[in-house]
Write the structure tokens for this entry.
Amino acid sequence: MAYVITDECISCGACEAECPVSAISEGDGKYVIDADTCTECGACAGVCPVGAPVQG
């Protein structure tokens, strides 16, 4: 199941830079993950300082 970014997101952008398939982009107030592109690698969750990316 693809990762999603919770409302804990502080819009730091660390996850976007880490995503190997460019599935993450800046959304309205938080970053968002394109579920169709996400490969469920978990790289975003590993670099997030607040633990916002979770498997959805």
Summary: The longest helix spans residues 14-18. Helices lie at 14-18, 43-47.
